[in-house]
Amino acid sequence: MSYVALYRKARPRIFDEIKGQDPIVRALRNQVITDRLQHAYLFTGTRGTGKTSAAKILARAVNCEHPENGNPCGECSVCRSITDGTSMNVIEIDAASNNGVDNIRDIIDEVRYRPTEGRYKVYIIDEVHMLSAGAFNALLKTLEEPPEYVIFILATTEAGRIPVTILSRCQRYDFRRIGSRQIALRMKELLQKEDTEAEDKALDFIARAADGSMRDALSLLDRCIAFYMGEKLTYEKVLKALGEADHEVFSGLTRKLIRGDTAGVIRDFSNQISEGAEVSQFISDYVWYLRNVLIVSETDSKDAEELIDVSSEQLEDLKKISGELDSDTVARYIRVLSELMNRMRFASDRRVLAETSLILLSKAESDEHEDAWTGRIRQLELKVEELMAGGFVPAGSFENQAKKTDVEPADEGEKVLLPDAAPDDLKAIAASWDRLIADMPGGKGRGLLKNQLQHHAHVQYNEETLENRLFIELGEGLNREAARVIAADEYSKEELEKYLARKTGKHVPVTFYLAKDAKPGSLKTIDTQAYAEAQMPGVQVEVIPDSEFPEDPF
After folding, report:
1. Do 15 and 45 form a contact (C-beta atoms < 8 A)?
2. Cα(5)–Cα(20) distance, rounded to whole angstroms?
3. What is the SS3 string spanning 328-395?
4. Is 418 helix (H, G, I), strand (E, B) or coil?
5. 119 HSE (CA, 13 A, CB side)
6. What is the pLDDT of residues 407-461, one digit of tens each?
7. Which H or E run contains 126?
8. Distances in Å between the alpha carbon of 307 and those of 20, 179, 302, 477?
9. What is the enclosing helix (H) or strand (E) of 60?
10. pTM summary value
C-alpha cells in the first residue's frame, strides 16, 4: 500500500481525539446523547482546526448502531461504510468545484428520498462560501425546512462571505486556533507510534510555525521526517528543513536596525535568503519575534513567561532587546513590516520590496510617519554615545577655545579661519533665519534638527554682555523628547555652526537650551521684523568661494 500522509493517518475518529475544541466537542456530543440534533450546522474557523473531521464524526455518530457516550463505535456496518466512503447516506460536496445552481438542485432532488440505512442523510458542504449567489438562494428554502431525516453541515474558513439569510438558519460553531502546546503534545504522541525521535524544542518550533493549524503542523512534521529519514529531529535540523531563521538571526537584525546599520541589515537578510529562507515567511517570523519583544517590554517577567512560548535563554535575550528599544519603535517596525506583507501578496519581486522596507526601518529619518520620531531620537542618542566614547571634544572645552570653524581647504595642512560674528551679524542672521534654515540640507541625520529649528526654536542673544553667540531656545510640547536630545547633542550644535559658517562666512557660536530651563543670562529675542528688510550688515551669504571648500562639510 502507498504511503499515507501523517495528517490523514492521524485524522480524529471520535470526538475525544479532536484537540483544542473542547466546548464544541462537548456541545456536539451532548446533542447526540440527548437526541437534540439540529437540522443545519455551520462550522467556521481557520484551516486545519478540525471542522471537516468534526463533521465526519458527527455524521457517523448520528447513524451509529452502537454509539458510546456520544462517540461513534467505529465497528458497526454503518460506521465502516461511512469511513470507507461507500455510504449513500453521507454526501460530501466540495463547493469550490460544485458551486452552481444545478449542483444545489441535485441535492434538493435527493433530499426527498429517505436514507437506505441508518437514521439520517448528512450533507457535508465544504468551503461553502464558494457557492454562487444563485446556489445560496436555491439552498435557502431546503435549509430552512429540511425533512426530519436530513442534516446539513456547512464548513467554511470565511464566514463573512456567507449570506445572513443562510447564517440565521444554522447553528454556528467557531473553531479556534489550536494552542502550540497541544499541537506539540499531539505530534510527540504520533512520533512514538512512528518510532521516530525528536527534541521537544524542535516540536515546539514546528507547532509555532503551524500558527494554530494541526494539519499544517503534521504536514511540516512529515516534511522534516522525510528530509532526515531515520535520524533524530533536532531544532537545528528542523530550521534547515523548513528554511526558517533562528532566534539569534532576528536578534542580530534588530540590533543593527537600532544602530541604523543599513549595510549590516541587508547583509543579514541576504544571507538568510541565500541559505533558503522564503522571503514572506522570514518577514512573518520577524513580525512574530517583534511581537514577543513588545510583550516583554510591556509586561512583567512572570506574565511574559506565560504569554511567550520561548526558551529561558531566548526570553533573556528578548528582555535585553526590549531594554534597547522603546515600545513606539517596536510598534513602528511591526507596522512597516505588516504593510510589507500585504504588498508582497501581489508583488512579482518580493525580495526587493522586503529590502526596501528594511532600509526604511534602519533609516528613521527617511520615514515621514509620526511614529518614526522616537526611532530618530534613539539613533541620535546612539550617535552621541559613540562620539563621546570615541574621544569627541565638545565645543567650548579647553582644547577648543580658539573659536574657529575648521574646514578642509584646497591645500592640505591649511585652515580657513573665520571672523567671529558681531552683534549686528547675529541680528541680521535672525532676520533671515527662516530662509537660512529652509535651505539647510535635511539628509544624513539632520532632518530632526532642521524640523526643530524651523518650527520649534526661538533665536536670542545676550543683550547685557553682547556676547557674539546665538542662544536658541528649543520648544517642548509634542516635541519634548526631540528638543531634549538636540539640546544635549554636541553633534547637532556643531552641524548648525558649520552650516552658518558656510552661509555667512562668520563663526557663529551656538548654545541650545530648553524652554523649561532658566535662561542662560539676560537674553532677548531678536526683533526680526525690524531687520526683515535689512541687507544683513556684516553678513554675506556664500561669502567664501567654493574653491576654498573642495569638500562640502554636509
Report:
1. no
2. 21
3. HHHHHHHHHHHHHHHHHCCCCCHHHHHHHHHHHHHCHHHCCCHHHHHHHHHHHHHHHHHHHHCCCCCC
4. coil
5. 15
6. 444 444 444 567 777 777 777 777 777 778 877 776 555 666 777 777 777 777 7
7. strand 121-126
8. 17, 12, 9, 36
9. helix 51-63
10. 0.57
